[in-house]
Amino acid sequence: MDKLYKISDNMVLGLNGDVGDMNQFNQFITSNLGLYKLRNNYQLDTPAVAHFIRKNLSDVLGAGNPYYLNLLVASYDEQSGPKLYTIDWLASCHKMQFAAHGLGGIFALSIMDRYYNLDLTESEAHKVMLMCVREMQQRLLINLPNFRVKTVSRLGVKTLPDINSTMWSQKE
C-alpha cells in the first residue's frame, strides 16, 4: 500500500495508522488544500499546511473522535528550500531534519542520526533508507516486504525504486 500521497507539486504527505483514517484524512487534506488554491490563486506553504493538519487533528482529538494517524509532511519551497514536519495523532508538530514513525521508526531514527548530513546526495540518502529497512526487517517480527521511497526537490515529487529484501540478499 502506498502511504505517501502527493498533495501538491512539491509536497508529499506520509501517513501511517488506521487505513480508514488514512484514506479519509488524506482526502480531506487534499480537497481542502485544493479548495484553498482555487479560492486564493496560490497554495499554502509548508508551515501553513503543517499547521492546518495539526489544527484539524487537534480539533477531532478534542471532540473525542481522533484520527489514529502519524504524519510526515515533506516539501521543497523555492524561497526556503526543503522542509520536513512530523505530526503525531496527539497533534504535536515539529520541524525536523529527518523523521520516522511506527515500530520500525525506533530503529530507523538511530541509523538516520548516524548517517544523516545536509550534503547527502539522492543516491546516498537512498542507501541510508536501505540500511533502515534492512534493520527493521532483521529486528521486527512484522516483516513488510516492500517500502515505497519518494523524494521531493525543486523539480517536484519523484518516486524512487521500492526497497525490498531482495536488494541486499543479492549483495551478500
How would you describe the overall organization of this protein?
It is a single chain. By secondary structure, the protein is of the alpha+beta class. A hairpin with a 5-residue loop joins strand 4 (81-87) and strand 5. The chain is 42% helix and 28% strand. It contains five helices and seven strands, in the order E-E-H-H-E-E-E-H-H-E-E-H. The two termini are 28 Å apart. The strands form two sheets. A five-stranded antiparallel sheet has the order 1-2-3-4-5, with helices on one face. The chain has a two-stranded antiparallel ribbon with strand order 6-7. The model has no long low-confidence stretch (mean pLDDT 90).
Summarize the structure.
With 172 residues, the protein is of the alpha+beta class.
